[in-house]
Design a protein that fits this description.
Helix content: 25-40%
Strand order of the largest sheet: 2-6-5-4-7-8
Order of helices and strands: HEEEEHEHEHEEH
CATH architecture of the largest domain: 3-Layer(aba) Sandwich
Number of helices: 5
Distance between the termini: 74 Å
Structural class: alpha/beta
Shape: globular
Oligomer: single chain
Strand content: 15-25%
């Protein structure tokens, strides 16, 4: 009986050590986005996705203007229409401000043909926004953005991250986002 307890105890300790090692290895490889830093460049082209018009997209393009990036699961597209409306209402100068909507195509059960049709409608409603398809969750993997969610990020003219939040925005979150953009545009 004593050996059974001892073996059980050792198995428990071994399991805990293994889990801790696996978790720490994942954390060590994390490409977590940090405010004030320029994130690793991500490119979408071919099988990975790209612009809705078929051209490639690279985050290296997020320089020269203040940019807001929305990374959206199509199933979560309706949680922040008030943010989109607030940004549109601000009518930021197009020579100093840009927006990019990256659609997490792999996060939904909806067929791509329907999503692409919806994106064309969005492009008409927001013609100054660049629409991008992420077919294989590249941004989830490379930038650790929230999967199955709605992420909003803002970058300054040098490409440094100024603001990041995911999920449904409160009025306070919207105010903070707008204030961050206005400050960066000065």
């Amino acid at each position: 009986m004593n050996n059974i307890k001892k073996n059980s105890f050792l198995l428990t300790i071994f399991s805990l050590i293994s889990i801790t090692f696996i978790l720490s290895a994942n954390v060590a490889n994390a490409a977590e986005l940090k405010i004030g830093e320029i994130p690793k460049e991500v490119k979408l082209d071919g099988d990975l996705g790209g612009r809705v018009d078929g051209n490639p997209f690279s985050t290296a393009e997020l320089k020269g203007k203040v940019y807001t990036v929305m990374y959206v699961d199509p199933d979560e597209k309706d949680i922040n229409p008030h943010v989109e409306a607030a940004l549109k209402a601000e009518d930021f100068p197009k020579d100093k401000y840009g927006s990019v909507a990256i659609i997490n195509m792999a996060a939904t059960w909806k067929p791509n043909v329907f999503i692409e049709s919806a994106l064309k409608e969005k492009q008409q409603k927001y013609p100054n926004t660049t629409y991008v398809r992420d077919i294989k969750k590249t941004f989830v993997k490379e930038w650790e953005l929230a999967d199955d969610n709605y992420d909003i990020l803002t970058f300054n003219k040098e490409g440094k991250l100024l603001f990041a939040k995911n999920g449904k925005f409160s009025d306070e979150d919207v105010s903070k986002l707008i204030a961050t953009i206005k400050e960066a545009l000065k």
